[in-house]
Design a protein that fits this description.
alpha/beta; 10 strands; 38% helix; globular; TIM Barrel; 10-stranded mixed β-sheet; 414 residues; binds iron/sulfur cluster
Length: 414
């Protein structure tokens, strides 16, 4: 078996962790139709209106702090985000405040902590003073105008739009400078909105460019597949249906999928791009590629579920948890994690080794079908497929000649 990742790399990742995300509760005051914990999906724990106990979070922070305070912590960027996620994070503010207070007194000179939260804004009026005081980076979920937002309903089925807007307007009026610097919007694309609708509403009302995501298409229940497909929309197709899509695309820049694709293509295939100083030392062509585009565990973030499960991020099924915070200890076995990871990668390495897209692959291992038996990636590219994809990127560059300079000088991929 090829060893693609070692336990040492995992411990190093813990020491240099850029973000620690707590799922502070699985309770939510909304019941959005497409929520990843909702009716479409089957690969998450049952929701029980639980709250993540503060002592579990503190146990984990103490465990990680031994790495953050060790010589393994070599990251040039000492910033680290402590992030709060739900359910709806504002429903467990006791937890949020206790963790912030604990972090603020932590003896950890090598790291500088910042806070962030994803919220549906329903309770924002109650907690905005605190969030502003602690300079939280706030990501507010808003799907566009009232009709666009109509899948975001409360437990009685009422659209939450007006309650969200009143609170967001209040935050902007009361704290305009904070709003300008720290608030962003996150929208989900579906069959009741479009990229143009979302962009236009949020740009005109708040002068912000939203990040727009598609519905997560893994872990769909068999009996919900048709309904899911009716609800799902593709961002690129949606954008290109807009009348002034070029204008929107240019303004969104790397928030638009076309620029994201080009950025990745240029960064991976240009001989003039180096991800870090050490990559200057090697011949890119001769580097061994790890199968798939999966990040090394915990190099991007650590996600802790309300049940104390530890995952490398919130975008993968919770059955893939890699550690656990129990009532007494943090169970985290880097050797076992590396073994599991390597065994998955070995199962797909044959397919990836002949894939022409391996240098620019962004496919996460944990979202590939059949991972436990015979994984099959639907993004596999033969030579013709890569040529077609390259021609499309070149055509985009011909139409947008300024994009090359902009991407190479303004964008840093971390
Ligand atoms: S989705 Fe996969 S590749 Fe992306 S951050 Fe999560 S674990 Fe890493
Ligand atoms: S696109 Fe799929 S087959 Fe190709 S390298 Fe990525 S994971 Fe492997």
């Amino acid at each position: 078996m090829t060893e693609y990742i070692s336990s040492e790399q995992i411990y190093d990742a813990l020491a240099n962790l850029p973000q620690l995300v707590f799922e502070v509760t699985d309770a939510c005051n909304l019941k959005c139709k497409y929520c990843i914990y909702g009716e479409f999906y089957e690969d998450h724990d049952v929701r029980e209106n639980s709250m993540l106990p503060i002592d579990k979070a503190i146990r984990l922070i103490d465990y990680l702090n031994q790495y953050w305070n060790s010589p393994r912590c070599t990251s040039a960027n000492s910033y680290m985000y402590i992030s709060f996620y739900g359910g709806e994070a504002l429903m467990n503010m006791d937890f949020v405040k206790a963790v912030v207070a604990y972090i603020e007194q932590l003896d950890c000179p090598r790291r500088e902590f910042r806070f962030s939260m994803t919220t549906n804004a329903i309770l924002l009026h109650r907690h905005m003073d605190y969030l502003v005081e602690k300079k939280f980076n706030l990501l507010i979920s808003l799907d566009g105008n009232e009709y666009n937002h109509s899948y975001r309903v409360d437990h009685s089925g009422r659209n939450s739009f007006s309650r969200v807007i009143i609170n967001v307007d209040l935050l902007q009026d009361r704290y305009p400078e904070y709003f300008r610097r720290y608030v962003n919007f996150n929208s989900v694309l579906h069959n009741r909105n479009s990229v143009a609708d979302i962009y236009t509403f949020i740009k005109q009302r708040y002068d912000k460019i939203p990040s727009i995501g598609e519905l997560n298409n893994s872990g769909i229940r068999d009996d919900k597949k048709k309904e899911f497909n009716d609800t799902y929309r593709n961002t690129m197709e949606s954008l290109h249906q807009a009348e002034h899509y070029e204008e929107i695309e240019n303004d969104m820049f790397v928030s638009a999928e076309s620029y994201q694709g080009l950025m990745l293509y240029l960064h991976q295939y240009s001989g003039y791009h180096f991800g870090d100083y050490t990559s200057l030392l090697f011949d890119k062509e001769k580097l061994r590629y790890r199968p798939t585009g999966t990040c090394s565990p915990f190099t991007k973030k650590m996600f802790v579920t309300v049940n104390g499960k530890i995952l490398p991020c919130e975008r993968i099924g919770q059955q893939h948890y890699m550690g656990l915070i129990t009532d007494d200890e943090v169970v985290f076995d880097a050797h076992a994690i590396a073994d599991l990871f390597n065994s998955y990668l070995n199962r797909i390495e044959k397919q990836c080794s002949s894939c022409q897209n391996k240098a620019a692959c962004t496919q996460c291992l944990f979202n590939i079908e059949g991972l436990n038996n015979q994984p099959q990636c639907h993004g596999y590219m033969n030579k013709q497929a890569l040529l077609r994809a390259s021609s499309a990127k070149m055509a985009f560059l011909r139409d947008h000649p300024e994009a090359y300079r902009k991407i190479m000088t303004e964008v840093i991929i971390t």
